[in-house]
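Table 4 source record.
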Amino acid sequence: MKTNIFISIFYFSGTGNTWWVTEKIKNILKKKGHKIIIYSIEREDLK
């Protein structure tokens, strides 16, 4: 039985590289049926 998981990923990306990797991870996990939300810790609404 396959279990779908809700995953939150928090990241900081000064140059954009971490954002790029985070997007790749998100896409792989979404294809496997998981629900993914990514948050940049630089956003004002997270403070």
